[in-house]
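Quick question about two entries, pasted in order.
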Amino acid sequence: MAPSPIPELENRLRRAVVARRYDDVRRIALEFCSAARTAIGQLLPGDPLRRETILHVDRTLEWSRVMMILARASLSSDLRRFTFLRKYVLNFPANPSAPNTRLEA
């Protein structure tokens, strides 16, 4: 029996999630699920490894989902903070230590 590609695909999926490469996450998650489906299909229904593989895949996908939700929330928070601070930054003088003088022609 050939070695399972599941561990390598899991590592690639986790790295893509952490790096926020969402297009890669989608592609790798599909590959991961396909490899898991193939591996599970080769096991007998009563085999404990079958249930263990199913639970492992479920945990990995749930971890990925939670991490992406947290990343999205973090980005949303950063955007709200930027929007809030923007009005102050745009009104801030370019050189705050220079006297506020105006030359009349």
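Here is the second entry:
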Amino acid sequence: MAESWAARLGPEPFRDFLPYTSASALKVIHVKQVLSRALSVAQHVSDESARARATLRLQESLRAAGFAELLEISPEPVSGLVVSGLSEADREVIGERVLALYFHLLVREGPLFLDLRPRHFSWAPGRRTLRFYPSSLWCEPEPAFMQRLRALYAGFYRNDEEALAQGIELYRWHSSPSDGFATRVEGLLRNHFGSTDGSPVRFLVSHFRATFEAIFREVANSRAKLHPDLTFLGVELVGLYLTLESLNVALHVQPAFEKARG
């Protein structure tokens, strides 16, 4: 029932991502706000001039951050990422650059490009160049959301309890969950993020789905609600996991985050 509801009401650009969502997620969102924002995103999917302006802002921020040589922004759709035949070293470089892009999108000011699936990347082995096509599926999250999202990552990777507490607020947005919720959801988030001992991480869609299903169940059972923009971050994470899983390599995540933070 929940999946069919989402398929009927979810704007078309998001429907490709529905197979990766949890039915539990529909119980923990602020439905009207999420649907309103999804419709807003869908409206500019066909606006090429808006996409071009958002892409230019991304190019400028990558250049300012010193990432322009690592990632080439394509003005038109690319052929898609083909990993068969690539060496492990090449796949590691691609993974590191995709992670760099993801964290750059989170720490910079500007539109959040949501579609990081393999179809929007391509690799030129001879030049060792990764290209990315920013599609029209993008949004501009609330500043308060982005601030807390950065705090969540900082809290986890830097063992900053105060920052982590700020980030966890995203999972109890405008709601009053039951006692002990923050501690329980922190444990589930740590399970999602994985080890903090510096070990490389292998990205698996199955792990993504299982850990977030556990988080959504806890949020629902504790009568909490997610920040509306977490829904769109989830879309971005689906694409990220699909791309990184396809590379079949373990990656060092914390250095990518720290480099993006500067």
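Reply: The chain has two domains: 2-44+159-250, 48-139. Residues 1-10 have pLDDT under 50 and may be disordered. Hope that helps.
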